[in-house]
Design goal:
This is VWFA domain-containing protein. It comes from Actinokineospora globicatena. InterPro entries: Nucleotide_cyclase, VWF_A, vWFA_dom_sf. The chain is α/β, with parallel strands linked by helices and 781 residues long. It has four domains: 179 residues, Nucleotide cyclase, GGDEF domain (Alpha-Beta Plaits, 2-Layer Sandwich); 141 residues, D-Maltodextrin-Binding Protein, domain 2, CATH 3.40.190.10; 185 residues, Periplasmic binding protein-like II (D-Maltodextrin-Binding Protein, domain 2), CATH 3.40.190; 189 residues, von Willebrand factor, type A domain (Rossmann fold, 3-Layer(aba) Sandwich). Strands 1, 2, 3, 4, 5, 6, 7 and 8 form an eight-stranded mixed β-sheet that branches. Strands 13, 14, 15, 16, 17, 18 and 19 form a seven-stranded mixed β-sheet that branches. The chain has a six-stranded mixed β-sheet with strand order 25-24-21-26-27-28, sandwiched between helices. Helix 1 runs antiparallel to helix 2, helix 16 crosses helix 28 and helix 25 runs parallel beside helix 27. The protein is elongated and about 105 Å long.
């Protein structure tokens, strides 16, 4: 059987770095492969290059591009491919991010029954597997390392200014029977360009011509004579290039957005580029739009310090010119950060949002039946919290990962704290840590989850969980679309019902923000592109695309396929003066599982009268009341001390019932005096024995200090011991049943050394609520 003749073609070979890393599961590898093909398609499309014949190689592929000028493969394609990879990586976690080794070569490639073959194809794969290329990518902070063959560099790259030949470096390759030279560059992380030696032309003295009065000649003769005189002394005529009639470089526009908006915005950006190209009379590309995705916390951190962090380029991408966050809250948070950092000349010019998406409760049928929403769609914060408290299984996104998480947290905390706004003064109140911890027990946030990835968890446990997420994410879930970066599309699952909050409903408004750096000049062409891009995003065609992607348009209208949905709820007003950082910190701290050791004094003096009983009865009653703040997943324990300290209920989870049973009113007393200082040391030792958990430890001492003798204790050593903190802080709260003993026994100084307090208790009834707040402050602030 005859075979086609060999054909000269350009060869593009790619290989994913660390594709077979043990941390990549089969699922991760599938996401990587899908992302690789998507990035290549996107880059080739943007560079206006065809997707030619290709063969898959598991962790990579090769592509033959026979009918395209070779210079195009090293001009715009490297930058478009780097941009496409960064876009993929911004949406994915470490296990599914991609860095590529790329080889560009050209030569004869043949075809037989088994596919493509040829020495030039083999040569490309030798370069692709070479150690220099692996090392260059490993040492780079970028996502791409490109190697070209020596022939390709000498005949193509060197003569193509758009390929920037100066960033290539030569390396010797010894691979199997191959010994050759390759030229390697990292286009998105270029090394300093070597200085080129300047070329000095010899000075030429033109002879002075005698002054001769001649008749006025025709201009053509004068010009011709001048050129002929200059010709022997210069090479200008021979070396002059034809006027450059190619299109000017397109304006680069970097757009930062959320992980939720990024897929839709990338499609809109591509359509905008095409529309601008088609409208241009010379069919020139007007703009190159790079859409970068980041978490809520990542964008706030980078913009809040003026994109001046040492790793901002690596972690967040290039400096944005436009920012499309999910909510105006994001802008207020960044503005508050910028106001605290002097010397950063950044302004945020906000324009009306391009879409809408309210925060809803995504509920399975069992939860809908329990809530009994008004009209089948409307609920209140009160009904949601009651259902969460009685049923469990409710959650919300991480306030650090998405605007949906921050908005849901603000609205939820406002309800739980019974405050119209969460100002710094409100968040500093004594009761906040206790109330926030209670809130986190009922509707906890899912760490590192945004709306999509949180619903991905629900997809794995259908019918069991409910979540406060964006309406757009619920639409994606019900359509069976991909959720987050690692949750692939599926067949349509059993639908979740979006339930809408009748009052105080958070709404994402996706504002368009022009980021201006006042310490550098205005780029007028970019400004024009920004205006045209915004005009396009607000156009009817873009609004239709956004509705098809699951968003509402600025008017609140949603796609026709979503059935009957209520009008957009009235947005929850969030003050720009809100304490965003304090809200985030309170949520994170309040979500940690505490470790608390109660130590009750059982010395003889604790039998003395105290109100309607005795001191030990007041102590055990206080312990039982404070236990109400903890659940079975929290680590608690009970210690009794007289002359020595003994465990009554060892520190551990699931011990609340055992402590309530042990802390009975007739708690037995011991003979002799109590050693409160020894009890503090013993309690600290028990808590510090396990440093593996996150959060804060708290030792609660309940004593009368009646026999405490400061002169018999090594106070400096004890204060140094309690003050010595490791990775997990250990704090001290002393509750004294004898008026004035906190100071006389030196317990105030000891507690202060451990970042705690010593309180003289007046009454269990009147002081229990305040003590519960102090316990919470010790653990969650």
């Amino acid at each position: 059987m005859s075979q086609p003749a060999d054909k000269h073609t350009s060869i593009l070979a790619v290989d994913v770095e660390s594709y077979g890393d043990v941390r990549r599961t089969d699922r991760h590898q599938k996401v990587v492969r899908d992302g690789l093909y998507a990035a290549l398609h996107r880059a080739l499309d943007r560079a206006r290059l065809p997707w030619g014949y290709h063969e898959d190689r598991g962790d990579g592929l090769f592509l033959l591009v026979p009918d395209v000028p070779k210079g195009e493969l090293v001009a715009s394609l490297p930058h478009e491919l780097a941009a496409a990879l960064r876009e993929h990586n911004a949406d994915h976690g470490p296990e599914t991010q991609i860095r590529l080794r790329v080889v560009v070569h050209a030569g004869e490639v043949g075809t037989d029954d088994n596919g493509k073959h040829g020495r030039d194809l083999d040569h490309a794969f030798r370069l692709l597997d070479s150690q220099p290329l692996r090392d260059v990518l490993a040492d780079s902070s970028g996502v791409l390392a490109i190697a070209v063959s020596d022939w390709f560099f000498e005949h193509v790259v060197k003569h193509q200014p758009a390929a920037n030949p100066a960033i290539y470096r030569s390396y010797t390759v010894r691979q199997k029977e191959t010994k050759t030279t390759t030229w390697i560059c990292t286009p998105d992380s270029p090394r300093p360009v070597r200085a080129k030696p300047s070329l000095r032309l010899p000075a030429v003295q033109l002879p002075k011509l005698p002054k001769v009065q001649l008749p006025r000649p025709r201009w053509q003769a004068v010009v011709l004579t001048s050129l002929l005189l200059l010709a022997p002394t210069t090479n200008l005529l021979a070396g002059a290039a034809a006027p450059d009639t190619r299109c000017a470089n397109p304006v680069q526009l970097n757009v930062l957005t959320s992980t939720e908006m990024a897929p839709a915005l990338r499609l809109l950006a591509l359509n905008f580029e095409r529309t601008s190209y088609q409208a241009d009379e010379n069919k020139c590309r007007q703009a190159r739009v790079l859409v970068m995705a980041d978490t809520y916390g990542g964008a706030v951190d980078a913009l809040g310090q003026g994109w001046s962090g040492g790793n901002d380029l690596r972690d967040h991408g290039p400096e944005p010119h436009v920012w499309v966050p999910d909510s105006t809250v994001d802008i207020d948070h960044v503005a508050a950060r910028l106001a605290k950092v002097p010397g950063i000349g950044a302004t945020l010019e906000q324009r009306p949002g391009i879409a809408r998406s309210p925060i809803v409760l995504a509920a399975p049928k069992s939860v809908v039946d329990a809530l009994r929403p008004v009209g089948g769609q409307w609920v209140t914060w009160q009904s949601v919290v009651q259902a969460a408290s009685s049923r469990g299984g409710f959650s919300r996104p991480d306030p650090r990962s998405s605007s949906a998480g921050m908005l849901a947290t603000i609205a939820y905390f406002r309800y739980r704290l019974d405050q119209p706004q969460l100002t710094p003064q409100v968040m500093s109140a004594e009761s906040v840590p206790r109330l926030v911890h209670g809130a986190e027990r009922e509707i906890p946030f899912a760490p590192n989850r945004d709306s999509g990835s949180l619903l991905c968890t629900i997809r794995a446990n259908p019918g069991q969980l409910a979540a406060l997420v964006s309406e757009k994410a619920v639409i994606d879930y019900n359509r069976g679309r991909q959720l987050g970066s690692d949750c692939s599309a599926t067949a349509r699952p059993e639908a979740l019902t979006p339930l809408y909050l009748r009052t105080d409903s958070p709404v994402q408004d996706y504002p368009f923000v022009v980021v201006r750096w006042t310490d550098r000049p205005e780029h007028h062409q970019r400004r024009q592109v920004i205006d045209r891009f915004y005009e396009y995003l607000m156009s009817p065609s873009a609004a239709a695309d956004l509705r098809n992607s699951g968003f509402r348009d600025p008017g609140g209208h949603i796609g026709r396929d979503e059935g009957q949905v209520p009008a957009l709820p009235r947005p929850l007003p969030v003050s720009p003066e809100s304490a965003f950082d304090e809200v985030e910190s309170a949520a994170v701290a309040g979500s940690t599982h505490p470790r608390v050791l109660f130590a009750v004094d059982v010395g003889q003096t604790m039998g003395a009268p105290f109100q309607r009983g005795n001191r030990v009865q007041a102590a055990t009653e206080l312990v039982r009341r404070l236990l109400q703040e903890f659940g079975d997943t929290d680590e608690v324990g009970l210690l009794a001390f007289g002359r020595t300290a003994e465990d009554v209920v060892p520190l551990g989870t699931g011990q609340t019932s055992a402590i309530r049973k042990a802390a009975r009113p007739d708690f037995p007393l011991t003979a002799g005096n109590s050693d409160v200082y020894g009890a503090i040391e013993a309690g600290m030792d028990r808590l510090r024995a396990d440093r593996t958990a996150d959060g804060t430890d708290l030792l609660v001492i309940v004593t009368d200090s009646a026999t405490a003798d400061v002169s018999q204790a090594d106070m400096p050593a004890l204060k140094a011991k309690v003050a010595g903190q490791g990775p997990r802080p250990t704090r001290l709260l002393v509750i004294n049943l004898l008026a004035g003993a906190c100071r006389s026994a030196g317990l105030t100084d000891i507690a202060t050394a451990a970042a705690g307090r010593c309180i003289d208790l007046a009454s269990v009834e009147t002081d229990a609520a305040r003590l519960a707040n102090l316990v919470a402050i010790g653990l969650w602030r």
